Amino acid sequence: MRAAVMRDGALVVDEVEELSPQPGQVVAEVLACGICGSDLHALHHADQLVEMSIAMAADAGPFAPAPMDASLDVVMGHEFSARVLAVGENVGNCAPGDVVVSLPIVMDAGGIHAVGYDNHYPGGYSQQLVLSDVLCTKVPNGLDPRLAALTEPMAVGLHAVNLSAVTTGHAAVVLGCGPVGLAVIAALRAMGVGTIVAGDFSPTRRELAARMGATEVVDPRDESAVRAWRRVDGSRPLVIFEAVGNPGMIESAVLEAPRGAQILVVGVCMVADTFRPMIAVGKELNLQFAFGYDPMEFVDTLGRIAEGTYDVEPMITAEVPLDGVADAFTALADPDAHAKILVIPN
Amino acid sequence: MRAAVMRDGALVVDEVEELSPQPGQVVAEVLACGICGSDLHALHHADQLVEMSIAMAADAGPFAPAPMDASLDVVMGHEFSARVLAVGENVGNCAPGDVVVSLPIVMDAGGIHAVGYDNHYPGGYSQQLVLSDVLCTKVPNGLDPRLAALTEPMAVGLHAVNLSAVTTGHAAVVLGCGPVGLAVIAALRAMGVGTIVAGDFSPTRRELAARMGATEVVDPRDESAVRAWRRVDGSRPLVIFEAVGNPGMIESAVLEAPRGAQILVVGVCMVADTFRPMIAVGKELNLQFAFGYDPMEFVDTLGRIAEGTYDVEPMITAEVPLDGVADAFTALADPDAHAKILVIPN
Fold first, then answer.
1. How many other C-beta atoms can be found within 10 angstroms of the C-beta atom of residue B304?
2. Which of B230, B278, B286, B287 to mutate to test the interface with A (most CBs of A within 10 A)?
3. How does pLDDT run across A160-204, given as a tens digit for each residue?
4. How far A294 CA lies from chain B's nearest CA (Å)?
5. Using a CB-CB distance cutoff of 8 angstroms, which residues of chain A are in contact with residue B258?
6. Is B278 within 8 Å of A270 when comparing Cβ atoms?
């Protein structure tokens, strides 16, 4: 079968080994797979991703996936929907023909593996992948598998909101309206937060932010999102969602935050970052860092997409075949043009 | 009257203006005043303290004290006990002869002023000071005013513990056993936290940490405090109290923290600091920054000292007259020798 392979810091389409399911596993054909910002980062700075997964694994014991070796081939892609082709022994959840989504984790006798960041199991930039039967959730009848593929990134936003201090009595500011920021906005709106102020340099993304539920949208060149919150509300307790992940964003949020605010950091800054703790101390800020989601949030998110609570169709700004993955990575470097690009491998 | 005056980055004993109380104020003779690490910092980097108070004032409106002008004289000292000498009009709380402690704030028709960081009102490195009648709390009969002077720094530790997520089901690690770290340890012990692991390079401070209630005390050169926690407990949810305030401490705590831990930052790092957000994201850490205390915590702390819940006597490692303040500042630069030095101005 064919896949877009990360090899020596480049993406090349190549033939890769055919898959067969072990006990408890299924083999599925990929219907759609979103390109994630982490994949863009991994292509050029895989070492940083590896360092992060080692830190994450510190207290997880056998429940942490082994980090990938970026000097060997990796097929990335962890935001997928897929149709089951073949099932292994002891499979009771899935049957051939089922359209499913899954946590990007696959188990075997050797432990657990991160689908999309593993040397053995391919991710969704491939015609097929291997999934763990028990981790698959069937996509409800009638839901477009392209939309189901957004379950994973949308779950990241739901988790960030769930982990934050935000209630309907709060106001929220969202810094950055890429897919993660948009997912946060959708979760805030679904919760019923009345004031959601979003900031992004890209007009395309600002328009998406308003569609997803932001009540005030600003270009940070004209007015910072926190300043805009002071203009439209300024009184309710505030949670600032940092969904950019560039160096300097935390310092900027700390400087602008009102006393006692929470800054929920869901943007992943992969390099060392600098801020002034004394400002955070003086204002008694709270920085909560968020990563991923739990299995219930993942399933909850699929339900929200299926029921139309989240209208994710506008987030899909392009679809490409396997041959177009490398160019899509390049295109995503320009945030003006895109939110989520889907890979359609078959 | 005489005072140790901060002037051009030095401490000089000089005659300063006699005080008289305005309505609602009292004039009191200083019985004892502790030297705080912030004062050491202010002597050489007053600009950073000013910047911090401006940041703190951002959302406080008229309830924030105006920052001092370090190019003019300042009499520092905000950890004091004092005996009331004279009362102004409309004073109903204090009477001459009362021994009191007070929040280091004094009000007048012009607003509120930070006692110890103000150009007009002197702090406790002075023979006398002006206090707001309503902010004074009488020291219970029989309590040594030297011990009462530790109310302020001990309240900082109580507040940090109250603001943290710590419960009796948690374990705690305390990084740094200066006065703030010791105050945190005392508050944790009073709460009933069963595992309190403390780390400090100074043998004197480690001994004090054990006296205040630390259950395990380590020299970070031999074993980090978080590593020691893994050895003696390693399973309960953890709150790490960062009470050092040097650059690099947050990065170090982030690197060592177990997944989901809270880092309560009560040490004030006055310069820009660097850490890797991706590690904090991967472990979903929470950084809560703490500053000061509220009036109830202040009064609560005085009661704890009076009742013997906090045995603060061992924390007092020296007492000096006004003439000895400059040398005491120098001596405190060597943490091996001292915890709290009291100034006895009269």
1. 20
2. B278
3. 999 999 999 999 999 999 999 999 999 999 999 999 999 999 999
4. 13
5. 58-59
6. yes
Q: What ipTM is given for this predicted complex?
A: 0.94
Taking CA atoms, A61 is separated from A54, A57, A66, A77, B232, in Å, by: 11, 7, 10, 25, 18
| Location of structure tokens 């399973």 | B235
**Residues A190 and A304 sit within 8 Å (Cβ to Cβ):** yes
Q: Secondary structure of chain A: what % helix, strand, coil (to 5)?
A: 35, 25, 40
Instruction: Give CA–CA dist B68/B79, Å, rounded.
Output: 18
For chain A, say whether B279 makes contact (Cβ under 8 Å).
yes
Q: Give the pLDDT confidence of A43-95 residue by residue, as tens digits.
A: 988 888 888 777 777 677 667 888 899 899 999 999 999 999 999 999 999 99
Is residue B6 within 8 Å of B326, Cβ to Cβ? no
Question: What is the pTM (predicted TM-score) of this model?
Answer: 0.95
Tokens for A325? 């993955």
CA–CA separation, A173 vs A241, rounded Å?
Answer: 6
DSSP3 helix / strand / coil % (chain B, rounded to 5): 35, 25, 40
Give residue A51's pLDDT. 81
Name the nearest CA neighbour of A251 among B98, A105, A342, A240: A240
* CB B169, CB B236: distance < 8 Å: yes
Rounded to whole angstroms, the Cα distance separating A171 from A239 reads 7
Q: Compute CA distances A104 → A65, A79, A207, whole Å.
A: 11, 8, 30
Q: How many CA atoms within 13 Å lie on the side-chain side of B185? A: 32
- At residue A123, the pLDDT reads 98
Tell me the pLDDT tens digit for each residue of B109-119: 989 999 999 99
Cross-chain CB nearest to B277 (options A59, A258, A289): A289
Residue A13 and residue A4 in contact, taking contact as beta carbons nearer than 8 Å: yes
**Residue segments in chain A with a per-residue pLDDT below the cut of 70:** 58, 61-62
Min CA distance, A187 vs chain B (Å)?
19
A–B CB contacts, 8 A cutoff, strictly below: 129
